[in-house]
Amino acid sequence: MRSLGWPGAPPRPPASGLRFPDGGTWRTELPSCEGPAVLAAVLEESERLDVPLHRISQGSGVWMLTDAEIGEMVGACDARGIELCLFLGPRGTWEPGAGGRSYNASGPRARGRDQLAQCVEDAERAVALGVKSLLVADEGVLWTLHRLREAGRLPADTTFKVSALVGPVNPASFAVWEGLGADSVNVPSDLTVAQLAEIRAVSAAPMDFYVEAPDDLGGFVRFYDAAELIRCGAPLYLKFGLRNAPALYPVGHHLLPAAVASARERVRRGRLVLDTLARLGAGEGMSPTGSRDPGPLRRFPALPEALPTSAVPR
Predict the structure, then answer these.
(1) C-alpha span between 208 and 227 (Å, rounded)
(2) How many domains is the chain partitioned into structurally?
(3) Residue 174: exposure state from Cβ atoms within 10 A (0-12, 13-18, ≥19)
(4) pLDDT band for position 310 (cuts 50, 70, 90)
(5) Model-level pTM?
(6) What is the mean pLDDT of residues 265-277?
(7) Which of 40, 64, 164, 297: disulfide with 186, CB 3.0–4.6 Å?
(8) Positions of the region Disordered (predicted)?
(9) In three state form, how does the secondary structure of 230-252 look?
(10) Which residue in 291, 295, 225 sits closest to 80, CA to CA?
């Protein structure tokens, strides 16, 4: 570029000095793995294309899977040292009120006391079946689950992942999610590398980042940015999403062929990302497969169990 008289590269944002506890700077995640048949296709394709996976996540919700289906997914992931993360529900977009469909920001959240309780029930059911990672899209649900974990009512090694549907876009909001109990936080894929570095400067919580985002999350494709995303955002999960794909949530047998085909293509997209990193000389630093520990993180102090009687509204 310089030999042709074009401008040189601009100054780069500062590198992150943080790492996962295992010493790695990045891990991989395959999202939208909706059920045992889709999982089987993902595992087959990841082996064929040599795409290591640290985490596999699902979006339809715990309540959209039978106990047998969850058990099958847990067993398959445990056998390969892959973290299985299931989404909690129900959420605002699926309840009778119109607000969850009229206002995008409220759609993913748990509306009212009942949906909060139902998300807790989903969490209790999932961990009883062996799930160790839960996907959350509501601040109140996260804080409630973190308090249950702190109290020993959920296993201490349960981890909570914040959904891309509510991802923070500045350092202060990211730190709030960490304080509420998040063990990894999805940030929107339209953030610049410099903005990612600003967030990393205030928090050690792992970031989750779609290097290819589905259309409803912007459809961004950032393969060539992956090396800088890792350098400035570590510790970071690279998420292999897929744009121009059919909507699947909530999935079922009527959508199974599309779900399986999309999942296979997500794995292939992962191979493209890994190949790009290798060509850029940035393929090193991946955590060993089987790693899931987020490391020590900062939390808000617990609130009193109940308000004093004098403070309760009458």
Answers:
(1) 14
(2) 1
(3) buried
(4) low
(5) 0.91
(6) 98
(7) 164
(8) 1-23, 283-314
(9) HHHHCCEEEEECCCCCCCCCCCC
(10) 291
Cβ pair 248, 258 in contact under 8 A: yes
CB 83 within 8 A of CB 76: no
Helix (H, G, I), strand (E, B) or coil at 111: coil
Residue 300 covered by a domain = no
Place of tokens 């609130």: 303
- 38-47 burial, b for 16+ CB within 10 Å, e for fewer? bbbbbbebbe
Do strands 236-240 and 26-30 pair parallel, antiparallel, or not at all (unpaired)?
parallel
State residue 110 phi and psi, 5-degree precision. -80, 120
Residue 181 has what DSSP assignment?
A: T
The C-alpha atoms of residue 236 and residue 208 are separated, in whole angstroms, by 6
Q: Which two tokens stand for residue 146?
A: 């973190």
The CATH code of the domain that includes 71 is 3.20.20.70
| Residue 270 counted as domain residue | yes
User: Domain for residue 9, yes or no?
Assistant: no
Instruction: Say if CB 25 and CB 207 are below 8 A apart.
Output: no
Residue 43 pLDDT: 98
Beta strand extents in the chain (DSSP E only): 26-30, 55-57, 83-87, 133-136, 159-162, 184-186, 207-212, 236-240
Q: Which amino acid is at 148?
A: L
Q: What is the pLDDT of residue 22?
A: 97
Q: What are the angstrom distances between the C-alpha of 194 and each of 27, 32, 87, 185?
A: 21, 28, 30, 17
What are the structure tokens assigned to 80, written together? 């390969």
Residues 111, 141: Cα–Cα separation, whole Å: 10
Q: Which amino acid is at 167?
A: G
State which amino acid sits at residue 131.
Answer: V
The SS3 assignment for 136 reads strand
Q: With respect to residue 124, please indicate whether it lies within any of the assigned structural domains.
A: yes
